[in-house]
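Tutorial handout. Part one gives the primary structure; part two gives the three-dimensional structure as tokens.
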Amino acid sequence: MSKGKKILIGILVIILLVLFFLPGIIKDYAINNSKELIGRKIDIKELHYNYLSSTAKVYNFKMLEENNQDEFIKFDTLIVNLEPYKLLFNETVIEQFYIDGLTVNTTLKDSVFNFDDLIAFHTQENDTVTTEESETVKYDISNIELKNANFFFNNKNVDHTTHIDDFSIFMDNISWNKEEKSNADIKFNFKNGGYLETSLNINPADGDYDAQVTINNLILDPFYKYALEYADINSLKGILNSKILIEGNTNNPINTLVSGKVNIDDFALTDKNNKEVIKSKKISSALKLIDYANATYELDSLTLSTPYIYFEMDSITNNLVKLFKVDTEDNTLANEEYKTQIDTTATGLHYTINNFIVKDGIMDYRNNLTGKNFDYHLNDIKINSDKIDSQADWVNINANMLLNNRGNLDAKLGYNPQNLDNLNLGISIEKFQLSDINIYSQYYMGHSVLVGDFYYYSTSKLTNANLISENQLLVKNPKVKNEKNGLYSLPLKFALFILKDKNNEVRLEVPVRGNLNNPEINIGKIVWTTLKNRITGTAASPVTTLSTLVDVNPKDYEELVFKYTDTIPDENNIKKLHKLLEIETLKKGLKIELAHFVDTDLQRDAIVFSELGKKYFQEKNKNYLEDQTGFQNYINTKVAIDSLSVKEKAYTLINSKTADSLVNIYNKTLEKNITTALTTAKDSTNITVKSLDIKQTENVNSAPRFKINFDLLEE
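Part two.
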């Protein structure tokens, strides 16, 4: 063999040996200098390179955390198939890029991620600054595949780790000058079941992309700890399913458009007592368009199936405020700021719900405003609406529900989305059981409602915040009993008795007026005050209502008025007594009392002059009332003492003892004759005449009168 051939063979052997050992040398160099090369320590078990196919293979790669102990990234296999000759044309071509068994551990503590040091390492400024414009990077990568990947995100702020299991992705090709969109299919499983699958199509040339994202059976429980930042809950449950289409451009991501469907099954939130507060059998939404850049949010439909809410209120706050950590003062300021923003900067917001439906809703309500728990159950709640559009002139929403499994409530709300100071509200409540609110009746009004059906019809119109509300209340067959005095001690029992018509029904009209922009206007207070005044007014002046039974003027039936010397009722008072008997007949159970009042001193004077007037008539044949001068001369002649007044002279002729006796006789006779007039007109009556009590202060300066008092007969 010639010397030249030997040299050539030797060189070839050396080259082969170098090529054979080069991967190992590169591996050892990379491991030993990884800190300086990439900022972290790494380990590689095997590195192989096929020079014929230009394929590099890495096995059991591992990158450690900054502490050089914990694993940050590892994978089982990496295969990269290159076309090196393309580098001569300034183009990177990879025929295969394959990773199997990738595991990435990410942690967050406070605001620091465990890869922040890597970002800092790779973003350090170069020692020299390149001023030349960089050329376009040419690339062509095919058969991109990631299999059996696992991603762990440990959020130490909430002490929770999220695990994405069995993550896989495949892209057939991505190229710098490809006109068609490249396709990337991604799929991974959730640790607790379900999976996420996407199909991404992207055009590298212009950046246009679309992605179909499918989430199947994502269990919400693992997100419970994230929700704790916003809600004081004990658990978060539900299963999320969605199919979303995302379309946009990588060069202008803010203009991304989103559409699709999102459903949540068996959603539930529990409070710290492990009581379910909010839940729904199914929440379904069809997203027609979400266009963040143009502030447009359009839903084809939003449906809540069998939603449930538990609402508990006390004198200070309610359970939902506590649950969602709402600070009342901060929230008030936030609302004011929000309103300002809405008025000045958010006029472009456009939202639409083409079809909003609530089916078979349930609400449990509790409060302890009276010191005792009041529980109320609303069920079979149904809500539907026509198109809810923020730019519409008018929107209508209808709702109906059962009240404690018996009563019915129907509501119709119409409003102007562009001006909430304009709306119409119609409410109809039928067959509501009054016994349901015994706790309030007893506490506020001093009565317990035993039985009775309540009907309520309300029509309210709000125009530029000015409220005009007409409210009709109907109570059928009410029956109440007295309890201890309530907070307001309203005479409810008597008022209801008076207000009941011949059909044993109570009808009330409660108008409400006010401007809602006035902070002193409280609608609930207005309604309560109006109703309270109606009840107290009826009890204080029952004659106003009772007079309508016999079609008389109520003012004429506040009292019967007589003259000081009357002993029998005149024709006018007889008619009034007959009307009172009619009222008694029409209003079974009504107690009527005629209370006698008179100033006996004034009456005594009148009777003394009347008795002397009789003698004057016998002697002079003249009426003393018509001949005042002659009558005074008559008395002066009888008692010729100039120092005495006419009245003193009269009492000389009829002494005080006799006068007092006459007063008593006159009053007793009048009381007896009134009773006789009643019993003559009606065989049996409960109308009573209360005898004069001279100690009553109402007697002072009073003409003879019988005050008409109404009350309930003793049961």
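Part three, for discussion. The chain is about 25% helix and 45% strand. The chain has four domains: 22-117+138-177, 185-323+349-391, 405-539, 542-712.
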